[in-house]
Specification:
about 475 residues; alpha/beta; Rossmann fold; 6-stranded mixed β-sheet; 15 strands; about 40% helix; globular; binds pyridoxal-5'-phosphate; Threonine synthase; Ser/Thr_deHydtase_PyrdxlP-BS; TrpB-like_PALP_sf; pyridoxal phosphate binding; lyase
Protein backbone atom coordinates (compact mmCIF):
# COMPACT_ATOMS: atom_id res chain seq x y z
CA UNK A 1 0.00 0.00 0.00
CA UNK A 2 1.18 3.50 -0.87
CA UNK A 3 0.61 6.61 1.20
CA UNK A 4 0.07 10.04 -0.34
CA UNK A 5 0.17 13.56 1.05
CA UNK A 6 -2.97 15.66 1.54
CA UNK A 7 -1.20 18.53 -0.21
CA UNK A 8 -0.29 16.59 -3.31
CA UNK A 9 3.36 17.62 -3.67
CA UNK A 10 5.32 15.12 -1.55
CA UNK A 11 6.46 11.71 -2.85
CA UNK A 12 4.24 8.68 -2.21
CA UNK A 13 5.73 6.46 0.53
CA UNK A 14 5.55 2.86 1.73
CA UNK A 15 4.23 2.01 5.20
CA UNK A 16 7.76 1.71 6.59
CA UNK A 17 8.69 5.14 5.25
CA UNK A 18 5.51 6.71 6.57
CA UNK A 19 6.14 5.17 9.97
CA UNK A 20 9.49 6.94 10.17
CA UNK A 21 8.22 10.23 8.76
CA UNK A 22 6.05 12.76 10.50
CA UNK A 23 4.65 15.46 8.35
CA UNK A 24 5.01 15.17 4.57
CA UNK A 25 7.67 17.36 2.94
CA UNK A 26 4.95 19.60 1.43
CA UNK A 27 3.48 20.28 4.88
CA UNK A 28 0.62 17.81 4.38
CA UNK A 29 -0.33 14.62 6.19
CA UNK A 30 -0.03 11.12 4.81
CA UNK A 31 -3.15 9.06 4.05
CA UNK A 32 -3.51 5.67 2.32
CA UNK A 33 -3.89 5.92 -1.44
CA UNK A 34 -6.85 3.56 -1.18
CA UNK A 35 -8.56 1.66 1.64
CA UNK A 36 -9.08 -2.08 2.07
CA UNK A 37 -12.79 -2.91 2.38
CA UNK A 38 -14.62 -5.76 4.06
CA UNK A 39 -17.82 -7.37 2.75
CA UNK A 40 -20.78 -8.17 5.00
CA UNK A 41 -19.80 -11.85 4.92
CA UNK A 42 -16.26 -11.04 5.96
CA UNK A 43 -17.48 -8.82 8.78
CA UNK A 44 -19.77 -11.55 10.09
CA UNK A 45 -16.69 -13.77 10.39
CA UNK A 46 -14.65 -10.97 11.95
CA UNK A 47 -17.27 -10.62 14.69
CA UNK A 48 -16.03 -13.90 16.17
CA UNK A 49 -12.39 -12.77 16.52
CA UNK A 50 -10.76 -11.65 19.74
CA UNK A 51 -9.15 -8.20 19.84
CA UNK A 52 -5.61 -9.11 18.69
CA UNK A 53 -6.91 -11.33 15.88
CA UNK A 54 -9.27 -8.61 14.70
CA UNK A 55 -6.43 -6.08 14.87
CA UNK A 56 -4.34 -8.34 12.65
CA UNK A 57 -7.13 -8.66 10.11
CA UNK A 58 -7.61 -4.90 9.89
CA UNK A 59 -3.99 -3.78 10.07
CA UNK A 60 -2.46 -6.36 7.74
CA UNK A 61 -3.53 -4.74 4.44
CA UNK A 62 -2.01 -1.42 5.56
CA UNK A 63 1.42 -2.85 6.35
CA UNK A 64 1.66 -5.99 4.21
CA UNK A 65 4.51 -4.83 1.96
CA UNK A 66 6.64 -3.77 4.96
CA UNK A 67 6.03 -6.45 7.64
CA UNK A 68 5.61 -10.22 7.16
CA UNK A 69 2.36 -11.60 8.63
CA UNK A 70 4.07 -13.73 11.33
CA UNK A 71 6.08 -10.79 12.63
CA UNK A 72 2.99 -8.58 12.63
CA UNK A 73 1.17 -11.20 14.68
CA UNK A 74 3.90 -11.14 17.33
CA UNK A 75 3.95 -7.34 17.47
CA UNK A 76 0.16 -7.11 17.82
CA UNK A 77 -0.12 -9.95 20.35
CA UNK A 78 2.59 -8.35 22.51
CA UNK A 79 0.93 -4.94 22.25
CA UNK A 80 -2.52 -5.97 23.43
CA UNK A 81 -1.18 -8.35 26.08
CA UNK A 82 -0.19 -5.15 27.93
CA UNK A 83 -3.87 -4.33 28.47
CA UNK A 84 -5.39 -5.28 31.79
CA UNK A 85 -8.80 -6.43 30.62
CA UNK A 86 -9.13 -9.73 28.76
CA UNK A 87 -11.51 -8.08 26.28
CA UNK A 88 -8.90 -5.29 25.74
CA UNK A 89 -11.71 -2.84 24.89
CA UNK A 90 -14.79 -3.90 26.91
CA UNK A 91 -18.20 -2.27 26.60
CA UNK A 92 -20.59 -1.21 29.35
CA UNK A 93 -24.26 -0.34 28.89
CA UNK A 94 -25.31 2.88 30.60
CA UNK A 95 -28.77 3.42 29.11
CA UNK A 96 -31.27 2.13 26.56
CA UNK A 97 -29.03 1.72 23.52
CA UNK A 98 -26.31 3.85 25.13
CA UNK A 99 -22.93 2.15 25.44
CA UNK A 100 -19.50 3.09 26.72
CA UNK A 101 -16.45 1.58 25.03
CA UNK A 102 -13.74 1.52 27.70
CA UNK A 103 -10.45 2.40 26.03
CA UNK A 104 -8.55 2.97 29.27
CA UNK A 105 -7.28 -0.47 30.25
CA UNK A 106 -3.79 0.12 28.87
CA UNK A 107 -0.68 0.99 30.91
CA UNK A 108 -1.37 4.75 31.19
CA UNK A 109 -5.17 4.56 31.52
CA UNK A 110 -5.97 6.47 28.31
CA UNK A 111 -6.93 5.46 24.80
CA UNK A 112 -3.61 6.70 23.43
CA UNK A 113 -2.07 3.42 24.63
CA UNK A 114 -3.92 1.58 21.83
CA UNK A 115 -1.84 3.40 19.25
CA UNK A 116 1.39 4.19 21.08
CA UNK A 117 1.98 0.69 22.45
CA UNK A 118 1.84 -0.57 18.88
CA UNK A 119 3.77 2.36 17.42
CA UNK A 120 6.75 1.81 19.74
CA UNK A 121 6.93 -1.85 18.76
CA UNK A 122 6.52 -1.17 15.03
CA UNK A 123 9.26 1.46 15.13
CA UNK A 124 11.68 -0.72 17.06
CA UNK A 125 11.00 -3.62 14.68
CA UNK A 126 11.82 -1.68 11.50
CA UNK A 127 14.78 0.10 13.12
CA UNK A 128 16.30 -3.21 14.19
CA UNK A 129 16.01 -4.45 10.62
CA UNK A 130 17.58 -1.27 9.25
CA UNK A 131 20.37 -1.21 11.91
CA UNK A 132 19.28 2.31 12.66
CA UNK A 133 18.57 4.34 15.79
CA UNK A 134 16.24 7.29 16.11
CA UNK A 135 15.40 10.00 18.58
CA UNK A 136 11.82 10.69 19.57
CA UNK A 137 11.13 14.18 20.79
CA UNK A 138 7.76 15.42 21.94
CA UNK A 139 6.09 18.02 24.11
CA UNK A 140 3.22 17.12 26.37
CA UNK A 141 0.78 18.77 28.70
CA UNK A 142 -0.27 15.36 29.98
CA UNK A 143 -1.53 12.19 28.30
CA UNK A 144 0.54 11.82 25.16
CA UNK A 145 3.84 12.00 27.00
CA UNK A 146 3.18 9.13 29.35
CA UNK A 147 1.64 6.95 26.64
CA UNK A 148 4.63 7.58 24.36
CA UNK A 149 7.11 6.80 27.14
CA UNK A 150 5.30 3.58 28.08
CA UNK A 151 5.17 2.64 24.40
CA UNK A 152 8.92 3.10 23.92
CA UNK A 153 10.31 1.85 27.21
CA UNK A 154 11.55 -1.46 25.84
CA UNK A 155 12.72 -0.12 22.49
CA UNK A 156 16.49 -0.51 22.17
CA UNK A 157 16.71 1.58 19.04
CA UNK A 158 14.89 4.63 20.35
CA UNK A 159 15.96 7.42 22.69
CA UNK A 160 12.91 9.31 23.83
CA UNK A 161 12.90 12.87 25.18
CA UNK A 162 9.60 14.25 26.43
CA UNK A 163 9.36 17.89 27.40
CA UNK A 164 6.72 19.05 29.86
CA UNK A 165 6.22 22.46 31.47
CA UNK A 166 7.84 22.32 34.94
CA UNK A 167 5.23 22.25 37.72
CA UNK A 168 2.35 22.65 35.27
CA UNK A 169 1.17 19.08 34.75
CA UNK A 170 -0.93 17.18 37.27
CA UNK A 171 0.90 14.99 39.78
CA UNK A 172 -0.63 11.77 38.44
CA UNK A 173 0.35 12.70 34.91
CA UNK A 174 3.88 13.72 35.89
CA UNK A 175 4.44 10.55 37.89
CA UNK A 176 3.13 8.41 35.04
CA UNK A 177 6.01 9.81 32.97
CA UNK A 178 8.81 10.18 35.48
CA UNK A 179 8.51 6.80 37.21
CA UNK A 180 8.97 4.71 34.07
CA UNK A 181 12.35 3.00 34.29
CA UNK A 182 14.67 2.86 31.28
CA UNK A 183 18.03 4.31 30.22
CA UNK A 184 16.52 5.45 26.94
CA UNK A 185 13.78 7.51 28.64
CA UNK A 186 14.33 11.17 29.41
CA UNK A 187 11.82 13.47 31.06
CA UNK A 188 12.68 17.12 30.66
CA UNK A 189 10.83 19.58 32.89
CA UNK A 190 11.27 22.90 31.12
CA UNK A 191 10.97 26.09 33.17
CA UNK A 192 8.36 27.55 30.83
CA UNK A 193 4.86 26.79 29.63
CA UNK A 194 3.52 24.17 27.22
CA UNK A 195 3.81 26.50 24.22
CA UNK A 196 7.51 27.01 25.01
CA UNK A 197 8.00 23.22 25.02
CA UNK A 198 6.14 22.82 21.76
CA UNK A 199 8.12 25.63 20.12
CA UNK A 200 11.38 23.85 21.07
CA UNK A 201 10.16 20.63 19.50
CA UNK A 202 9.17 22.45 16.36
CA UNK A 203 12.52 24.25 16.16
CA UNK A 204 14.38 20.97 16.65
CA UNK A 205 12.52 19.30 13.79
CA UNK A 206 13.25 22.31 11.57
CA UNK A 207 17.00 22.21 12.34
CA UNK A 208 18.33 18.84 13.43
CA UNK A 209 21.99 19.82 13.38
CA UNK A 210 22.27 19.36 17.16
CA UNK A 211 22.02 15.60 16.59
CA UNK A 212 24.67 13.36 15.00
CA UNK A 213 24.06 12.80 11.29
CA UNK A 214 23.04 9.15 11.77
CA UNK A 215 20.16 9.92 14.18
CA UNK A 216 16.90 11.06 12.71
CA UNK A 217 14.15 12.68 14.70
CA UNK A 218 10.74 10.99 14.77
CA UNK A 219 7.44 12.50 15.87
CA UNK A 220 4.86 10.49 17.78
CA UNK A 221 2.14 13.12 17.82
CA UNK A 222 -1.25 12.26 16.42
CA UNK A 223 -0.33 13.11 12.84
CA UNK A 224 1.65 9.85 12.69
CA UNK A 225 -0.34 7.58 10.37
CA UNK A 226 0.34 4.39 12.36
CA UNK A 227 -1.50 5.84 15.34
CA UNK A 228 -4.65 6.40 13.31
CA UNK A 229 -4.39 2.94 11.79
CA UNK A 230 -4.30 1.24 15.20
CA UNK A 231 -7.42 3.14 16.28
CA UNK A 232 -9.58 1.83 13.42
CA UNK A 233 -9.67 -1.57 15.11
CA UNK A 234 -11.82 -0.72 18.11
CA UNK A 235 -14.54 0.84 15.96
CA UNK A 236 -14.96 -2.51 14.23
CA UNK A 237 -14.66 -4.39 17.51
CA UNK A 238 -17.47 -2.41 19.14
CA UNK A 239 -19.67 -2.14 16.05
CA UNK A 240 -19.49 -5.88 15.31
CA UNK A 241 -20.26 -6.69 18.96
CA UNK A 242 -23.47 -4.64 18.78
CA UNK A 243 -24.84 -6.22 15.64
CA UNK A 244 -23.02 -4.74 12.65
CA UNK A 245 -23.05 -5.43 9.75
CA UNK A 246 -26.75 -6.31 10.19
CA UNK A 247 -27.51 -3.07 11.99
CA UNK A 248 -25.81 0.31 11.83
CA UNK A 249 -24.26 1.89 14.91
CA UNK A 250 -23.24 5.43 15.89
CA UNK A 251 -20.17 6.66 17.76
CA UNK A 252 -19.69 9.66 20.00
CA UNK A 253 -16.03 10.64 20.25
CA UNK A 254 -14.44 13.12 22.72
CA UNK A 255 -12.39 15.04 20.20
CA UNK A 256 -9.29 17.23 20.22
CA UNK A 257 -6.93 16.76 17.29
CA UNK A 258 -9.47 14.70 15.30
CA UNK A 259 -7.21 11.63 15.18
CA UNK A 260 -9.51 9.29 17.06
CA UNK A 261 -12.70 10.18 15.22
CA UNK A 262 -10.90 10.13 11.87
CA UNK A 263 -10.19 6.45 12.53
CA UNK A 264 -13.96 5.98 12.89
CA UNK A 265 -14.48 7.66 9.54
CA UNK A 266 -12.00 5.23 7.97
CA UNK A 267 -13.78 2.26 9.59
CA UNK A 268 -17.00 3.46 7.91
CA UNK A 269 -15.24 3.72 4.54
CA UNK A 270 -13.85 0.20 5.02
CA UNK A 271 -17.37 -1.22 5.27
CA UNK A 272 -18.59 -0.81 8.86
CA UNK A 273 -22.16 0.55 8.75
CA UNK A 274 -21.88 3.79 10.76
CA UNK A 275 -25.02 5.89 11.01
CA UNK A 276 -23.34 8.89 12.61
CA UNK A 277 -20.04 10.11 14.03
CA UNK A 278 -20.60 12.66 16.77
CA UNK A 279 -17.77 15.13 17.34
CA UNK A 280 -17.91 15.90 21.06
CA UNK A 281 -15.90 18.98 22.07
CA UNK A 282 -15.34 21.02 25.21
CA UNK A 283 -15.42 24.81 25.04
CA UNK A 284 -12.39 24.72 22.72
CA UNK A 285 -14.93 24.21 19.97
CA UNK A 286 -13.10 24.84 16.70
CA UNK A 287 -14.73 21.76 15.13
CA UNK A 288 -18.20 22.53 16.44
CA UNK A 289 -17.87 25.96 14.83
CA UNK A 290 -16.83 24.33 11.55
CA UNK A 291 -19.87 22.07 11.59
CA UNK A 292 -22.32 24.83 12.49
CA UNK A 293 -20.88 27.83 10.59
CA UNK A 294 -18.61 26.28 7.87
CA UNK A 295 -15.83 28.53 9.18
CA UNK A 296 -12.49 27.26 10.45
CA UNK A 297 -10.80 29.77 12.74
CA UNK A 298 -8.48 29.99 15.72
CA UNK A 299 -9.76 31.23 19.05
CA UNK A 300 -7.83 31.69 22.30
CA UNK A 301 -7.21 28.50 24.27
CA UNK A 302 -9.43 27.84 27.27
CA UNK A 303 -8.28 25.64 30.13
CA UNK A 304 -11.08 23.18 30.86
CA UNK A 305 -11.72 20.15 33.06
CA UNK A 306 -10.89 17.98 30.02
CA UNK A 307 -7.32 19.14 29.33
CA UNK A 308 -6.54 16.47 26.72
CA UNK A 309 -9.08 18.15 24.44
CA UNK A 310 -7.78 21.68 25.00
CA UNK A 311 -6.65 22.60 21.49
CA UNK A 312 -7.15 25.56 19.19
CA UNK A 313 -6.58 23.72 15.88
CA UNK A 314 -7.37 20.10 15.01
CA UNK A 315 -4.42 18.96 12.95
CA UNK A 316 -5.95 15.73 11.64
CA UNK A 317 -9.01 17.55 10.29
CA UNK A 318 -6.91 18.14 7.17
CA UNK A 319 -7.15 14.43 6.45
CA UNK A 320 -10.94 14.61 6.30
CA UNK A 321 -10.83 17.82 4.27
CA UNK A 322 -8.75 16.03 1.67
CA UNK A 323 -11.67 13.64 1.06
CA UNK A 324 -14.32 16.35 1.34
CA UNK A 325 -12.49 18.17 -1.49
CA UNK A 326 -12.30 15.07 -3.73
CA UNK A 327 -8.66 14.44 -2.81
CA UNK A 328 -7.56 17.61 -4.55
CA UNK A 329 -4.14 18.25 -2.95
CA UNK A 330 -3.76 21.67 -4.57
CA UNK A 331 -7.08 22.81 -3.08
CA UNK A 332 -6.00 21.66 0.39
CA UNK A 333 -2.61 23.34 0.08
CA UNK A 334 -4.40 26.56 -0.88
CA UNK A 335 -6.90 26.31 2.00
CA UNK A 336 -4.19 25.63 4.58
CA UNK A 337 -2.05 28.45 3.30
CA UNK A 338 -4.96 30.84 3.70
CA UNK A 339 -5.65 29.39 7.16
CA UNK A 340 -2.15 30.44 8.24
CA UNK A 341 -3.24 34.01 7.59
CA UNK A 342 -6.72 33.90 9.15
CA UNK A 343 -10.17 32.29 9.21
CA UNK A 344 -11.27 30.25 6.20
CA UNK A 345 -14.64 29.01 4.96
CA UNK A 346 -15.35 25.66 3.37
CA UNK A 347 -17.39 25.06 0.23
CA UNK A 348 -21.04 24.15 0.47
CA UNK A 349 -20.39 20.85 -1.29
CA UNK A 350 -17.71 19.92 1.26
CA UNK A 351 -19.91 20.83 4.22
CA UNK A 352 -22.91 18.93 2.83
CA UNK A 353 -20.73 15.85 2.57
CA UNK A 354 -19.43 16.28 6.12
CA UNK A 355 -22.95 16.75 7.49
CA UNK A 356 -24.15 13.49 5.94
CA UNK A 357 -22.02 11.56 8.45
CA UNK A 358 -20.78 13.93 11.18
CA UNK A 359 -22.60 16.02 13.72
CA UNK A 360 -21.10 17.98 16.61
CA UNK A 361 -21.89 19.03 20.13
CA UNK A 362 -20.08 21.39 22.51
CA UNK A 363 -20.13 20.64 26.24
CA UNK A 364 -19.17 23.17 28.93
CA UNK A 365 -17.37 22.37 32.19
CA UNK A 366 -20.68 22.73 34.09
CA UNK A 367 -22.40 20.29 31.74
CA UNK A 368 -19.44 17.92 32.04
CA UNK A 369 -19.77 17.81 35.84
CA UNK A 370 -23.55 17.46 35.59
CA UNK A 371 -23.12 14.50 33.21
CA UNK A 372 -20.63 12.76 35.52
CA UNK A 373 -23.15 13.19 38.36
CA UNK A 374 -26.17 12.11 36.30
CA UNK A 375 -24.53 8.95 34.95
CA UNK A 376 -23.34 8.10 38.46
CA UNK A 377 -26.83 8.56 39.89
CA UNK A 378 -28.49 6.54 37.12
CA UNK A 379 -26.17 3.53 37.06
CA UNK A 380 -23.28 4.09 39.48
CA UNK A 381 -20.91 4.29 36.57
CA UNK A 382 -18.08 6.78 36.96
CA UNK A 383 -17.06 8.73 33.84
CA UNK A 384 -13.87 10.75 33.45
CA UNK A 385 -14.48 14.33 32.21
CA UNK A 386 -13.50 13.55 28.58
CA UNK A 387 -15.79 10.54 28.38
CA UNK A 388 -18.58 12.54 30.07
CA UNK A 389 -18.41 15.02 27.20
CA UNK A 390 -18.85 12.11 24.81
CA UNK A 391 -21.85 10.73 26.70
CA UNK A 392 -23.46 14.15 26.92
CA UNK A 393 -23.05 14.63 23.16
CA UNK A 394 -24.45 11.14 22.52
CA UNK A 395 -27.57 11.86 24.58
CA UNK A 396 -28.11 15.13 22.71
CA UNK A 397 -27.47 13.78 19.20
CA UNK A 398 -31.14 13.21 18.40
CA UNK A 399 -30.57 9.78 16.88
CA UNK A 400 -33.42 7.31 16.34
CA UNK A 401 -33.83 5.19 19.51
CA UNK A 402 -33.11 1.95 17.67
CA UNK A 403 -29.56 3.04 16.74
CA UNK A 404 -27.01 1.92 19.34
CA UNK A 405 -24.72 4.81 20.30
CA UNK A 406 -21.24 3.93 21.46
CA UNK A 407 -19.35 6.60 23.39
CA UNK A 408 -15.58 6.19 23.42
CA UNK A 409 -14.38 6.42 27.03
CA UNK A 410 -10.94 7.87 26.41
CA UNK A 411 -9.56 7.98 29.95
CA UNK A 412 -9.98 6.37 33.36
CA UNK A 413 -11.63 8.65 35.97
CA UNK A 414 -8.69 8.23 38.38
CA UNK A 415 -6.56 10.24 35.94
CA UNK A 416 -8.70 13.29 36.55
CA UNK A 417 -9.63 13.19 40.24
CA UNK A 418 -10.21 16.96 40.49
CA UNK A 419 -12.97 16.98 37.89
CA UNK A 420 -14.60 13.93 39.44
CA UNK A 421 -14.49 15.57 42.87
CA UNK A 422 -16.01 18.72 41.39
CA UNK A 423 -18.93 16.69 40.10
CA UNK A 424 -19.57 15.80 43.73
CA UNK A 425 -20.08 12.05 43.37
CA UNK A 426 -17.06 10.42 44.98
CA UNK A 427 -14.24 11.92 47.02
CA UNK A 428 -11.46 10.55 44.88
CA UNK A 429 -11.59 7.67 42.37
CA UNK A 430 -9.20 4.80 43.04
CA UNK A 431 -6.24 4.15 40.78
CA UNK A 432 -6.25 0.62 39.32
CA UNK A 433 -4.11 -1.89 41.21
CA UNK A 434 -1.09 -1.73 38.91
CA UNK A 435 -0.70 1.95 39.73
CA UNK A 436 -1.49 1.77 43.44
CA UNK A 437 2.12 2.51 44.40
CA UNK A 438 2.53 5.34 41.87
CA UNK A 439 3.06 7.88 44.63
CA UNK A 440 5.84 5.84 46.23
CA UNK A 441 7.84 5.17 43.07
CA UNK A 442 11.10 7.00 42.42
CA UNK A 443 10.89 9.82 39.89
CA UNK A 444 13.50 10.57 37.23
CA UNK A 445 13.30 13.99 35.69
CA UNK A 446 15.67 16.74 34.59
CA UNK A 447 14.69 20.34 35.27
CA UNK A 448 16.08 22.57 32.52
CA UNK A 449 16.06 26.31 31.80
CA UNK A 450 13.61 27.53 29.19
CA UNK A 451 16.14 27.77 26.36
CA UNK A 452 16.50 25.70 23.22
CA UNK A 453 20.30 25.51 23.58
CA UNK A 454 20.05 23.88 27.03
CA UNK A 455 17.46 21.37 25.89
CA UNK A 456 19.35 20.40 22.74
CA UNK A 457 22.67 20.16 24.58
CA UNK A 458 21.06 17.84 27.13
CA UNK A 459 19.69 15.65 24.37
CA UNK A 460 22.99 15.46 22.49
CA UNK A 461 24.78 14.49 25.75
CA UNK A 462 22.31 11.76 26.63
CA UNK A 463 21.97 9.75 23.44
CA UNK A 464 22.60 6.02 23.79
CA UNK A 465 25.70 4.60 22.13
C1 LIG B 1 -5.95 12.72 23.24
C2 LIG B 1 -7.24 12.61 23.98
C3 LIG B 1 -8.47 12.97 23.39
C4 LIG B 1 -8.57 13.57 22.01
O1 LIG B 1 -8.24 12.68 20.97
P1 LIG B 1 -7.91 13.23 19.50
O2 LIG B 1 -7.47 12.04 18.72
O3 LIG B 1 -6.83 14.25 19.67
O4 LIG B 1 -9.16 13.84 18.96
C5 LIG B 1 -9.62 12.77 24.13
N1 LIG B 1 -9.57 12.27 25.39
C6 LIG B 1 -8.42 11.93 25.98
C7 LIG B 1 -8.44 11.41 27.38
C8 LIG B 1 -7.21 12.07 25.29
O5 LIG B 1 -6.06 11.73 25.90
Amino acid sequence: MKYISTRGQAPALSFEEVLLTGMASDGGLYVPESLPTFSADEMREMAALDYPALARRIIEPFVADSIPADDLKTLIDDTYAEFRHTAVAPMVQIGANQWVLELFHGPTLAFKDFALQLLGRLLDYVLERRHQKVVIMGATSGDTGSAAIEGCKRCNNIDIFILHPHQRVSEVQRRQMTTVVGDNIHNLAVQGNFDDCQAMVKASFADKSFLPADRSLVAVNSINWARIMAQIVYYFYAGLALGAPARPVAFSVPTGNFGDIFAGYLARNMGLPVERLIIATNSNDVLHRVMTTSTYGRQPLEHTLSPSMDITVSSNFERLLFDLYDRDGAAIADLMQRFDAGDISFSEAAMTRAASLFSSHRVSDEETCAQIAATWQQCEYLLDPHSAIGVNAALNAGLAPEVPVITLATAHPAKFPDAVAKAGVVESPNLPLHLKDLFERRERCEVLPNTLADVQAFMARNLSA
